[in-house]
Design a protein that fits this description.
alpha/beta, two-stranded antiparallel sheet, 5 helices, 28% helix
Amino acid sequence: TVHVVDSRRSTAPARANRDVGAPVRRSAAMLELARLIERVAERKIPVLVLGETGTGKELVAREIHARSPRKDAALTIVNCATIPEQLVESVLFGHTKGAFTGADRNRRGVFEEAHGGTVFLDEVAELRPAAQAALLRVLDTGRVSPIASNREIQVDVRVIAATHRNLLEM
């Protein structure tokens, strides 16, 4: 499932009345998290958010995006666990007409569509190893290759990924 969020809607915490969806920042741990979000938001580096299911990884990604220089561009949210295995590369990187049965037209992938914005890859550890390798190439080069295309497309995208899995154990 892919969602595009209109990031022009403010996600900054309100002073007197807290915005719906804005995180509460009263505990020492939450204040430290807020400081960490502020530090990474201004940088161009990819971010990996780790945490158990239900701990607010998507809220962290939204806060990073909202406080980044890309805040006026789209935040595209991709739930990697819900993409059918045979369509992962097509969804993320696009495809050309005739690339596979049912590819009746060229299709831009998430990364090309999100050019200038942020892509949040939720449950990134659910991607099969080949898709993770293709994702690593995008992170390294800033380029995507649609399926069955011999051209590369330069993309300017901030990647925030999240997982509940213990990646060191995996």
